[in-house]
Amino acid sequence: MDEDKDQQEISIRSQLTLPCGASVKNRLCKAAMTEGLADSANRATGRHGRLYRRWAEGGAGLLLTGNVQVDRRYLERAGNIVIDGPQDASQVGALEAMAEAGTSGDTQLWMQISHAGRQTPALIASEPVGPSDIGVALPGGRFGKPRALTGDEIRNVIARFAFAAGIAKQTGFTGVQVHSAHGYLLSEFLSPRVNQRDDEWGGSLENRARLLLECVRAVRKEVGADFAVAVKLNSADFQKGGFSFEDCLRVIEMLNQEGLDLLEISGGNYEQPREAYFFDYAVKASQVATMPLMVTGGFRSAAGMNDALAGGDVDMIGLGRPLCTDPDFPAKIMRGDLDVAPDVESALRVGPGILGPHSPIAMIKAINGFARIGWFYEQIYRLADGLPPDLSMTALRALIAYEKTEKRKARELER
Ligand SMILES: Cc1cc2nc3c(=O)[nH]c(=O)nc-3n(C[C@H](O)[C@H](O)[C@H](O)COP(=O)(O)O)c2cc1C
Fold first, then answer.
1. Is 231 left (phi over 0), alpha (psi -120 to 50) or beta?
2. Residue 1 has pLDDT above 80, yes or no
3. pLDDT value at position 268?
4. What are the residues facing 68 on neighbouring strands?
5. Are residues 152 and 181 both part of a single domain?
6. What's the pLDDT at 365?
7. Are 199 and 244 contained in the same domain?
8. Is any atom of ligand 1 closer than 6 Å to the C-beta of 182?
9. Whose CA is nearest to atom 4 of ligand 1?
10. 62: which strand partners?
11. 372: Cβ below 6 Å to ligand 1?
C-alpha cells in the first residue's frame, strides 16, 4: 500500500507530459534570468551557448531563457537578445548553438519573449512606451516618462511576439514563454493603475487582458499545436489600485481557453519588488486553472519543493537565484546530495543597518536592490565564461561592476 503511494506521489524527479505532447524529464525549471550577454547589435553570442550548456548539465528538466526582446527600441537591458526583424547569419548561428546546448541531455529550452514597456531604462530610451503616460515611481531617474502606445502600435506588438516565437522554433528552441509579469509591457496593460486607456485595450479586465490574449493567440498560430507555449503571470502587483489576485484568477480563466502548456505564477514589479513567495496564490490559482501550473519564487529546499508538488496543486517548481549560486543545484537535490540552496543573504547587503536593504531611506533601499541584482548578474557572467560562482563577491563590488557594465553596453549599442 505504502509502496503504491510512493510510486504515485509526484516529486521533483517525476516526469511531466505537457498538453502539446512534449515531455519534461523532471519537475524543476530554471526560471527566466536576463543574461545581458548579447553583442552590441543585440545578437546571441557563444557565451549564451556556454551558459545554457552549463545549466542543462545542472539537471533541470526545463530551462527558460532570460527575456528576449521583441523591439530593440525598448529593451529591459542593453545586453538583451533582440528578435525584431531579418535575422543575420551570426544571430541565427548563435541562437542555434544556444538551442543545441540548452536542449542537451533531453532538456527543454524555452525562449522567454518580452517587451520592456515603461520599464525600459532611461539609458536605452528617454521616452519609453506603455499603455498610458504613467511613469515608474522609483527614485533616481532610471526610467523616463512613457508615452501611450497608439492602437496601430499595439497591433504591431502582437505581430512582434508572433515573429519572435517563430524564430525561436526555427532555431531549435522547444517552446516559448510570453512574459506578462513583473511590470513589463503586457503586465502594464493588465494593471488598472498603469493602464488608464479608454479604448478596447483599457478599462474592463477583458480589455486590459486583450493584449496578452492576442499575443498568446498569435504566438500559437505561428508555432502550431505541437510546440510548447507558456505564460508568466503575476499573482498580483501588490500595489494599491494595481493588478489584484482576483484579476489574476479571472485572467487564468480567460487563458484556460488558449491551450497553454504551462502557466507560471510569480509576482511584483520594480516599484514593489517582493521576496517572492507565491505558493499560496498558486494553490488557489490551481482551483481555476486547467493548464499545468508552475510556481516560482523563494523555493530553496528539496523538502519544500517536494511538499509543494505532492499536494498536487502545482506541477513544476521554478528556481531562479539558486541556479546562479550553484548551477548543479537541481541535480544535487534530485540525487539527495544537497537539501538546501546556499544562503547568500549576508553577501547581498551594501552595508549594515540603515545602509542595508531595509533602510528607511528610499534611495539606499533602491541601491541595495540594484546591488542585489548586480550580484546575480555577475555570477551569470562567470558561468557564461566557464568560471564557477564566486559566493565571496561583495554587494558593493557587484554594484560598481553592474553600473559600469550597463552604462558601457548602452553606449555601445548599434542603433
Ligand atoms: C538575475 C535575475 C534576472 C532575472 N531576469 C528575469 C527575466 O529575464 N525574466 C523573468 O521573467 N524573470 C526574471 N527574474 C525573476 C526570476 O525568474 C524569478 O521569478 C525570481 O528570481 C524568483 O525566483 P527565486 O526566488 O528562485 O530567485 C530574474 C531574477 C534574477 C535574480
1. beta
2. no
3. 67
4. 113
5. yes
6. 87
7. yes
8. yes
9. 33
10. 29, 108
11. no
